[in-house]
Amino acid sequence: MWKLLRYLKNYKKESIIGPLFKLTEAIFELIVPLVMSDIIDIGIAHEDTRYILGKGGLLLLFGFVGLCCSLTAQYFAAKAAMGFGAELRHDMFDYYMGMTYSEHDSIGAATLINRLNVDVNQVQAGVNLALRLFLRSPFIVVGAVIMSFTIDVRLALITLVATPVIAVVVYIIMMKTIPRFMQMQNKLDDILAASRGNLAGVRVVRAFARQEKEKDRFNKTTDELYDLSIHTGHISALLNPISYVLLNIAVIMMLWFGAKGVNTGRLTQGQVIALVNYLSQILLALIAMVNLINSFTKAVASAERITSVFDPEEFEKKKLRPVAENLTELPDAKGRPHIRFEKVGFTYPGAEAPSVSDIDFSVEKGKTLGIIGGTGAGKTTIINLLTGFYDATEGRVLIDGTDIRDIDNAEKRRRFSYTPQKKNLFKGTIRENLLFGREATDAELMKALEISQAAEFVNKPGVGLDYAVEKGGTNLSGGQQQRLTIARALVGCSDVLILDDSASALDFATDAALRKAISTQLPGITLIIVSQRVGSLMNADSILVLDDGRQAGLGKHAELLESCDIYKEIYESQTK
User: Would you say domain 2-310 falls under CATH 1.20.1560.10?
Assistant: First the structure.
């Protein structure tokens, strides 16, 4: 929790003004029992109406000033808390967007979303309550005890004993509930993951008639959260009744001994009423403290979940790191291959065996490399290593002679135009989807559409660049989606174009037209094509054949037919 408080640094004024006004309100509240004592002992005892009205007006003034102080404190505390939450979310989202694929895989999107929304809301609520009550409630408790001692030491001892007893009860219950609140948040992660997976794959669920089983699985998870919430609620619910019982026992004792003091003349009736009022103030302050602790307990649990994946101190250092430390311009690469894999191996986090191993090849600038292999051979893994989404666990990936790990992300994204295996279009217009990565004119957009063979349907009446695309491109066919994702990669493409099985939904004629357009209209581009079709790779300058994560062959089409049995088998299966 303390790590996250750095996000209040831009709200120091609000963080000071809010508690100060709450303390001012508390001071007026502590004076009220003394005024009431005077009204009873002087005004009512002597039937002095003017004195009663004067003191009553003073109480009204205290109430009005206290209300103004409270509203001011609420405003500044809310402003600080909302600003705290906004800045924390901004940094968390920036951090998430910069996470490696390995980190995303190990943590999961569902828990990241939950931490960004639910957990930040909990911490934000805890900060708001803390700014308003963290100083006020202890001040009221301590102040009421001190004021009680100024009236009568004997009766004040009752409040002095009752207060720490209640504090111990609060502490015990808090220690019991904090780990359970963390478990509840983890269960929320599970529910979010289950609902997200089922809603994203609803067509598959229905196709296999899995609705009832998925409902049962979801209901089981929610029932576990329900049971945990009820159990935690039972523990938290003990706080108020135990506090009330202890304080009411203290009130009874004070009235008992106070009545004896009045009978003996040691105390006045107004003093007893003032002591009971101070005890009531302690009760209300402790109840507020209980609510604060309940909220703060949830906030602490959420803060621990946030900091388990997001370290604000490390993120701050990363933001302050000089730009010069990053290599934004690569050195002259004359005499070196444009792309070079040197004995590269990679194992996914948690995997028992490497996905690829001993991969060694090079690609000259302006040449075309084809990558082919069976399902699970490691084709997409090679692309992920080339683009820097994952770092090689063995060997090196070099771009113009420089290790890709030494190149900053901005330079990687500038150099590589990438069409992933999975089609992914965003809700918006065709123009907005094409401009997702780079700025371009309408003429450049149309050129990209023509090369990708998408101009055919975009130029139809009623379509155009401003045609609305639904989330995931659900209002387009598979081939149209694929051509638009290729066009998006072609916008601003200047160095390396990577097509990761991006023509799988295209017919052979369209696929051939696409490759011809790339070669004629984008001269000098280094082209990497991943495909299951031999026909898409036959004219490549070199073809990399993968088999179960290993390099089974490397060469031109004719050479591989002679030297690589796996490539020959794939070729014959598709042509004979």
Answer: yes
Helices (H) and strands (E) in the chain, counts: 21, 12
**Average pLDDT, integer, range 484-496:** 86
Is the Cα dihedral 500, 505, 509, 513 positive or negative? negative
Answer whether residue 153 shows pLDDT above 80: yes
Task: Specify whether the CB–CB gap between 465 and 447 falls below 8 A.
Answer: no
- Given a cut of 90, is residue 371 above it in pLDDT? yes
3-state secondary structure at position 363: strand
pLDDT confidence band for 325 (50 / 70 / 90): very low
- Which residue stretches of 310-335 are H helix? 312-320
Is 2-310's fold the same as 339-575's? no
The answer to whether the beta carbons of residues 228 and 180 sit under 8 Å apart is: yes
**Beta-strand (E) ranges in 472-572?**
496-500, 526-530, 542-547, 550-555
CA 329 centroid distance within chain:
32
Quote the CA–CA distance of 301 and 303 in Å, as a whole number. Answer: 5
Mean pLDDT estimate for the chain: 84
Architecture in CATH for domain 339-575: 3-Layer(aba) Sandwich (3.40)
Do residues 8 and 80 lie in contact, with contact meaning Cβ atoms separated by under 8 Å? yes
Torsions phi, psi of 110, nearest 5? -60, -45
- pTM for the model stands at 0.68
Q: Is the pLDDT of residue 243 over 50?
A: yes
- Which residues pair with residue 174 across a beta bridge? none
For the chain, the structural domain boundaries read 2-310, 339-575
425 near 476, Cβ under 8 Å?
yes
Token pair of 312, please? 């604000």
Q: Are strands 550-555 and 496-500 parallel, antiparallel or unpaired?
A: unpaired
Helix axes 12-38, 120-133, angle to 10 degrees: 40
Hey, which bits of 450-510 come out as E strands?
468-469, 496-500
